[in-house]
């Protein structure tokens, strides 16, 4: 990425913070009420205080652990399920209806189910995180696998390859862009749901601490939690995208903003018409 783009992104963030500081410091009350909002300086001061405590890093560790376990389970099982549904009529008939019925249910609505089924709140929060990421991964994988051209599979089968070779050499590599698209969406949804689950049934974590600050009307601490959640979500989503770019490095990439690399393609010789 060019220095100009980095500068533009930094300027956008600085402008948003400047507008926030201006509206809150002037106690603007024009339909939107900013007089009770903490200023940027107050949030920064609260963040500096919180970041020096062991409690803050302990909460950070709990949330990251829950996200890591739930998301990795969702990634593995989601890719396997999506591939099976796309490739097997038996799997599509057995699992497809169940997925389509459960998929529209918000993951946070499964909190009572997790409380009833699982022995501890910790396992329940991980389950909610898993459920949040699982369905985006399943759907994106299913669509990516079904969109593959059958030409490559037929070529492998013609050369003596079996179903396993088709899966490893054709299906999974070809579906990787769609799979990582689902993973990127899934990790963002996981953060939304893990924070909500921590607020409802957690004992530690960024979401639990943010809700606790709200109950005692400590609004700067609430915004510290929001900033932390946003930063963690951005870092994990960026990590997934970078991993996806590395895994799909064989794909053609744009040479620059608005420019696509040009490749010389030799036209195939014209075929003689069949008499």
Topology of this protein?
Layout (H helix, E strand, L loop, with lengths): L2 H23 L3 E2 L1 E2 L6 H12 L2 H34 L1 H14 L8 H7 L3 H26 L3 H9 L4 H39 L4 H10 L3 H29 L6 E3 L2 E2 L15
Antiparallel strand pairs: 1-2, 3-4
Give an overview of the whole structure.
- Helices cover 74% and strands 3% of the residues.
- By secondary structure, it is mostly helical.
- A two-stranded antiparallel sheet has the order 1-2.
- Helix 8 packs parallel to helix 9.
- The radius of gyration is 24 Å and the shape is globular.
- It starts with a helix and ends in a 15-residue tail after the last strand.
- Mean pLDDT is 85; it is low at 257-268 and 270-275.
Number of strands: 4
The secondary-structure element order is: HEEHHHHHHHHHEE
Largest sheet geometry: 2 strands, antiparallel
Uncertain segments: 257-268, 270-275
Q: What's the tally of helices?
A: 10
Q: In percent, how helical is the residue content?
A: over 70%
Strand content: under 5%
